[in-house]
Amino acid sequence: AGIGKCVATDLARRNARTILACRSRERGQAAVEEIRAATGNPAVVLRLLDTGSLASVRAFAGAVLREEPRLDVLVNNAGVTGLPFAVTSEGLEQTFATNYLGPFLLTNLLLG
């Protein structure tokens, strides 16, 4: 939704292979189908990612590195705000993990 969906749609319009990294399979797949229909680009795909989970970040990055011949652009757009205090299963504060640690780890894992 929002800025991320707009960026993904613009990239798809430019005929880029576009990977939507989403927490929700249902919402993500709906966005993929909408973007494909709006752009005519069939190379829009969904991969599940929860930046609040470092294990999820590592799994996502590993899959991208294995499956994609190259990565030209990374847009770190996910974030949360206003959540009550919570600690992840990895012992990290949820908002800090989601907004900072996860994207930082993802970027570093995907650097060539």
TrEMBL record:
Coiled coil: none
Gene3D superfamilies named among the record's database cross-references: NAD(P)-binding Rossmann-like Domain
Record key words, sorted: Oxidoreductase
Gene Ontology molecular function terms on file: oxidoreductase activity
Pfam family of the protein (one): adh_short
SUPFAM superfamilies: NAD(P)-binding Rossmann-fold domains (SSF51735)
Family: Belongs to the short-chain dehydrogenases/reductases (SDR) family.
Protein name stated in the entry: RDH11 dehydrogenase
Source organism of the structure: Phainopepla nitens (Phainopepla)
